[in-house]
Amino acid sequence: MKTPASTYRLQIRPEFTLDDAAALVPYLSSLGVDWLYLSPLLESVGASEHGYDVSGPSRVDRERGGREGLAALAAAAHGAGMGVLVDIVPNHLGVAVPEENPWWWSLLREGRGSRYAEAFDVDWDAGGGKVLIPVLGSEEDLGLLRVEGTRLRYYEHSFPLAAGSWSVGDSAQEVHDRQHYQLIPWREADTRLNYRRFFAVNTLAGVRVEVPWVFAQSHAEVHRWIEDGLVDGLRIDHPDGLMDPAEYLERLRELSGGAYTLVEKILEPGEVLPDDFECEGTTGYDALGLVDRVLVDPAGEEPLTALDTRLRGGPADYAAMIHETKRWMADGLLRAEVLRLARLAAAQVAEGAAAEPSEEEPEPPSLEALAEAIAEIAAHFPVYRTYLTPQPREVTPDRREVTPDRRDVTPDSGGGGHDAAILARACRDAAVVRPDLMTTIEALAPRLADPDEELCRRFQQTTGMIMAKAVEDTAFYRYTRLGTLTEVGGDPTVFATAPGEFHGALAERERRLPHSMTTLTTHDTKRSEDARARITVLSELADEWASTLPRLLEAAPLADGPLANLLWQAILGAWPADRARLAQYAEKAAREAGVHTLWTAPDEEFEAALHRLVDAAVDEGSEAHALISGFADRIAPFGASNGLSAKLLQLAMPGVPDVYQGTEFWDRSLCDPDNRRDVDFGARSEALAALDAGAPVVGPLAEDAKLLVVSRTLRLRRDRPELFAGYAPIEASGDGADHLIGFRRGERGVAVLATRLPARLEQSGGWGTTTVRLARPARDAFTGRSFEAGEVAVGAVLAALPVALLVPEEANGNG
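Above: the chain sequence. Below: its structure as tokens.
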């Protein structure tokens, strides 16, 4: 199996096609990139900007360059010695425009008789034998339907008509009533929807890849890419939405011939990747959290927490907050998913009662009680999901199959015991919070723990939805004391990571997952790496921020102190940023938080205040502008130091480092769509050529300082992989020892030195007597300066930049 030394993520879209990517190969090869990492390529709805709404799994999107474009890119990449990693989306298909999705079109036209009925996860009974499509403004809009040829139309929406379902003289509503689908008001989706979807996105319908023919047909084009040598590795989007991720990965491994595979698996703190996942690792959010937190000053926790407490009028209880947001999602946006589980549970409870009749049989729990209990159990889950799977069936000599009893699985029994313990704990915690549901929870618990039960399998698919929507997309916009901490997979109550803990985690990564991806920025991060690096400085200057923020609030009032804190931190991280970018982010943040305004019900008055806040920030001459621009100037050097340190740690640590498009320059983006803006690759190519020609880097704040760090580290990783084998911490001694984070990649590998807590370092007078011991002579890959073996002054090594990549002299050559 080929594995990458590094990857570079490109967002392929109609405005930046596969042909455009092929033209970038010479630049990316010069940058040191080993593999290209491409966003989804299959045909998508309306040739979308992101590609995660695949409408046709049988061909490369023509608007992105088509199969010919992929072949050209693969030829260019392979010709330059680079591999190709492609993002694929097995969990769902895009159905926003039914006629663009032949599978969905067939389902709507033929209903249960469609060959694709088995491919979609439809609860037919809940829809009275129909697929419920939430598009209407209200029930009265049924009067706006019209029949045109063989289609039923509603405004711009078009749906197929079943054969023989209309005749001359029929009204459009009569024709509608004869279809295999029913159009319903869009506001009813959250309670009535009867097909599985991706999170709460009605236009992304879940696909049952656990069905062998569905897997084969939906992956046929991907298989051709592998067979034809166009693609070398695969990135799997949202595997937690699948019925059985481990089984899926096993099938995929066979289909791909063992190609390099990564999964977008979100690991909560303390969680590890399941041993039976046939893949090389995750897409790197777990690494992102480690790098960010080792650069956070633990001394800032108390003053920033005190500031947050003042802003919200009392201490924030994160556990209570996420319980509230999980219930909000389970009772609101994802109520349809919970009700489906409740209906299934009711049927299974009834079957159990019929199978074991008793004279003293208690009253079965109501559908509402079952829904409440399921929602409460899900709200107590500490991870996205469990992975309970049926054990292999034992075949007796007379060829009868015996299914092992899984009801008594304990944490020490193996075979999913850890996951069973997670579920059992969630059930116990739910019963403590809701003693009125204890009997119902006790009735549900054994069925939720039995993977031979459909209820268990579907519940496992559902908990991740609730977690993602409630935590990432809601609570992370409410828990705002330090924006650095609210990234996917992170626990924002964990304020900082000590260097010793950081080193232990990286040594474990080297041992268990040496080929797992590491990342700092993705298309889904809440803030880009350099915006977070700026915000991280607030942990060192917490008292200054605590005195500055009230003045900002006075200059631009907002009736939500914690949200205002989040917005001003984001503005600081992105500074300087234009009005449109910041206004778009402010609206999104407020609507995701869902306290004062919502996507489905915007509060005009509150959102007007948001826009006034943004105006105050960007309008020169205003007090708020003077305050925020002055503070940004104050922390800029420290933010640059953090940014370079984070980047070097990520690029040189164990794993496969990914560089998100454009982030070889300073990139202070906020969440999407801000982080998907066009990249000026011409400027980056010219700057790299200038560096290679000997142009000096004038200092850490310079645009090309980051380019220098990225290019020199990537080139070494690609050209000298032996320099990045193994892991051991480097300890400093002297005045500033706590401000150095360093490690060595093996006995004869590179030595990495990076600055942490740069503001406090400056306040204390700099590196002073701080030294590190070099085992052998080495040269800094960034400055070209050489250092003798023995004790070396850190201040001398880091005189030009806050980071150094020391290459042993005997290893010097073409690095």
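The longest helix spans residues 623-652.
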